[in-house]
Amino acid sequence: MFGLDTSFTILLLICLFAACVFEFINGFHDTANAVATVIYTHSLKPTTAVVWSGLWNFIGVNVGGIAVAMGIVNLLPVELLVDQNLIHSISMILALIVTAIIWNLSTWYIGIPCSSSHTLIGSIFGVGLAYYFLPGVTTYALNWNKVMDVGLSLLISPVFGFAFALLLMYILRKTVKNKIIFKEPPAKKAPPLWIRSILILTCTSVSYAHGSNDGQKGVGLIMLILIGFSPVYFSVDRSKHPENLLYQTRQIEWNLTHIDTNVLIPGDKAALRIAVANLGFIKSKVTGITSFDDLKKEDHFGIRKAIIVVSKKTEAVLKSLKSGKQANLSPIRISIITANLKKFKTNTEYSPRWVILLVSLSLGLGTMIGWKRIVVTIGEKIGKTHLTYAQGASAELVAASTIGVSTMFGLPVSTTHVLSSGIAGTMVAGSGRQNLRMGTVRGILIAWLITLPVTIILSGLLFFVLRMIFK
Q1: How far apart are CA 379 and CA 111, in angstroms?
Q2: How many Cβ atoms sit within 10 Å of the Cβ of residue 10?
Q3: Average pLDDT of the residues in 40-67
Q4: CB–CB of 354/6 below 8 Å?
Q5: Strand partners, 383
């Protein structure tokens, strides 16, 4: 399978199964983010709500793109971790998957809403940092620019959730005359049709957004596994023809070589030289071949690294040119290079269809199971008063919007923390801080603060242990 012998094929299948388990747990851990409001407002019965949410999670993974998945892959430059010893790659993969599963299950069991995003990203950080401390390693194994983007996204998104939900509730109280939406829903009685429709729509939106963002993290995780195990088969998108890559390479090379280097600062001149050199390497390897099968084994990953280097260096030069600090490249030429580069990057930023389907099934099925613990926390324990129609709709509308925008920019966010902070914001908008159950809020906040350090330490230690075992 993928050029691996029987023992490594079995290990690959185990790792793929573990990744599906992580995404399954992610499903039932985060189901509450979408269904708590429709259940506690009696808009949908629990079974109907979780099945409906599972369906839209499935759809979200399948049609939400792969920008977030590639953000996960690019956190950890796998070209630094894929060496001649496949066992070392397996150690990395097992360490981050086992850590993510342990922490997700632990927080679910005690009913604390915890972020699967924090968990997975912390696990990746852990193995990346641990790699740097291995004997003989002098290169950082983390993409620090991407780390900063992701860290900022995870930090800011709950603040946005709280602030915008509070603001939306304030606006509703000032503008809506029908006060029924601010009252506690009658026990076991469905709300009026117009309110029920809004709540089901927001539930659907959060479910779809969760699939398009959180589901893509599972896609990114599986791509890390596949590249780690079999770089020959997964370093480059083999569904594309080498002639397409050659054509794209020549286009970018022509445009870059026509940039007047006399107007560039020294750093950009060096970046341009490196990009052109790597384009030359790609041309030398794909010229004259009719299939990626014609490449030598070591050249598959070499081409992947070259594509990544060309993309990063070219984007850095274009950024300087766009800033206006250096001229003279017309906006039209910049847009042409940007468009060419976007197509060029699809040779490494891709996912096989079967991976997306596997993750969407795991997430969708997980959404239908194990939801009750977190639902009770969100529905009953964040605020002292029962969740109202307006609070449920406001929190979910803000959560869906925040997650949707983050997905557009390819940034992972925590559905759990955005929704939980949104619920807290609506409770404060109603009766002030005294309406919050500070014990629950404190527990959620502590989980938010300690998830990254705990998973970083645990995955790093597991990585060291597994490297010692699998020498």
Answers
A1: 12
A2: 12
A3: 82
A4: no
A5: 436
What is the pLDDT, as a whole number, of residue 249? 92
Say what the pTM is: 0.79
Sole residue written with tokens 């490249």: 329
Separation between Cα atoms, residue 48 and residue 29, nearest integer Å: 17
pLDDT at 288 over 50: yes
Residue 254 CA to residue 277 CA, distance in Å, equals 13
- Please tell me the distance from the alpha carbon of residue 471 to that of residue 468, in angstroms, as a whole number: 6
More confident residue, 455 or 46: 455
Kindly list the distances between the CA atom of residue 176 and the CA atoms of 165, 170, 191, in Å, as whole numbers in the listed order. 16, 10, 17
Determine the 3-state secondary structure of 265 from DSSP.
coil
* pLDDT at residue 280, as a whole number: 93
Q: Cα(392)–Cα(197) distance, rounded to whole angstroms?
A: 12
CB 404, CB 147: distance < 8 Å:
no
* Rounded average pLDDT over 276-301: 87
Residue with token string 């150690």: 91
DSSP 64: S
Residues sharing a CB contact under 8 Å with residue 145, sequence separation 6 or more, in sequence order: none
Nearest to 364 by CA among 28, 120, 49: 28
Query: What pLDDT sits at residue 441?
Result: 64
- The pLDDT tens digits for 427-439 are 776 655 555 565 5
SS (H, E, C) 351-380: CCHHHHHHHHHHHHHHHCCCCHHHHHHHHH
